[in-house]
TrEMBL record:
Keywords: Magnesium, Metal-binding, Transferase. It comes from the Bacteria. Transmembrane segments: none annotated. The keyword Repeat does not apply. This is 4'-phosphopantetheinyl transferase. InterPro entries: 4-PPantetheinyl_Trfase_dom (IPR008278), 4-PPantetheinyl_Trfase_dom_sf (IPR037143), 4PPT_N (IPR041354), Enbac_synth_compD-like (IPR003542). GO terms for cellular component: enterobactin synthetase complex; plasma membrane. GO terms for biological process: enterobactin biosynthetic process. The lineage of its organism: Bacteria, Bacillati, Actinomycetota, Actinomycetes, Kitasatosporales. Its cofactor is Mg(2+).
């Protein structure tokens, strides 16, 4: 992630995490698994906000389930089995961002067709033949999740899986200390932890581009044509991230194109 973005993460659910009444109301009837995901996600968010210099407070659920961040802050939450994370930034430095974590495993066969375009499936077939250790289908799914999380705060509109076409760009194998865990903070930074099936010290990271197939504008009226993002794979986990900054306001990794 670019230096303007602060993140926090957890691999277990710490006990005794405080929730505000507005947050408790969201999960009153939730099953235990959902309660733990939600609670630890808010815990990570407050850790990240504190590091950003923002006094943390309640993070209620807003439209389409997205958290309502403090004034002047943008952010994104993600969770999967064994991992929760939050990323935040000042709106003056990053206009929108999205992060997503997924298990590094193949998508179910009945899911792939619903989240990909024909051209994407053709590209996935080539990537899977050339680099079979990586689950490119799940990476593509995650990339679209990060794209949506970036798009929605800018437009307030839904973006379907068929409305963004993802292309994977250059990727690389990098050395990384054996046993090191993954970190959302390091998405896009050279060096990634080891991939299952790959000896310790060898792993992969890379970039992707998403072309938007529907029209949209950011809050300043700039047309949104696409996003660029980063990904990494790490010990059974994959992470993707997108950041967008309004054109003319400087640049950040994964900015809008």
């Amino acid at each position: 992630m670019p230096p303007q973005v602060i993140s926090a993460e957890a691999y277990t659910d710490p006990p005794g995490v405080f929730l505000y009444p507005e947050e408790e109301a969201v999960i009153t009837r939730a099953v235990d698994k959902r309660r733990r995901e939600f609670t630890t996600g808010r815990y990570c968010a407050r850790q990240a906000l504190t590091a950003l210099g923002v006094t943390p407070g309640p993070l209620p659920r807003g439209e389409r389930g997205a958290p309502v961040w403090p004034a002047g802050v943008v952010g994104s939450l993600t969770h999967c089995d064994g991992y929760r994370a939050a990323a935040v930034a000042h709106r003056s430095e990053v206009t929108s961002l999205g992060v997503d974590a997924e298990p590094h495993a193949r998508l179910p066969d009945d899911v792939l067709g619903g989240v990909t375009l024909p051209a994407e499936r053709d590209a996935l077939a080539v990537l899977e033949r050339r680099h079979p250790r990586l689950h490119w289908d799940r990476l593509l799914f995650s990339a679209k999740e990060s794209v949506y999380k970036t798009w929605f705060p800018l437009t307030g509109a839904w973006l379907g899986f068929e409305e963004a076409e993802v292309e994977f760009l250059a990727h690389r194998a990098d050395p990384w200390p054996a046993g090191h865990g993954p970190s959302v903070a390091d998405v896009g930074v050279p060096g990634v932890p080891s991939v299952p099936g790959v000896p310790d010290g060898a792993a992969y990271s890379g970039e992707f581009r998403a072309r938007l197939l529907r029209s949209g504008q950011d809050p300043d009226g700039h047309p949104l044509r696409g996003f660029e993002g980063r990904w990494r794979v790490a010990r059974g986990l994959l992470l993707t991230a997108v950041t967008y900054r309004t054109p003319g306001a400087g640049s950040t990794s994964g900015s809008g194109v």
